[in-house]
Design a protein that fits this description.
By secondary structure, this protein is mostly helical. The chain is 71% helix and 0% strand. Keywords: Membrane, Transmembrane, Transmembrane helix.
């Protein structure tokens, strides 16, 4: 379970980072480019991913 949570968390952080970079127009090729709402959505996604990763790392081995 810990491994699955860690993988999901890392994917959320990466996905959020891509959305932030697209919102900042640093990565192109999507409808999200230049849309400031995607900066906020990406930051929130990264925060959820980081919190999930923290939770996964703190879990005891069962």
């Amino acid at each position: 379970m810990k491994l699955i949570l860690s993988i999901v968390a890392v994917l959320l952080v990466i996905m959020g980072a891509v959305w932030v970079l697209q919102g900042l127009s640093l990565i192109g090729g999507s409808f999200m480019v230049g849309q400031t709402q995607w900066i906020a959505i990406g930051m929130l996604t990264m925060a959820v991913g980081a919190a999930l990763l923290y939770y996964a790392r703190k879990q005891r081995r069962s």
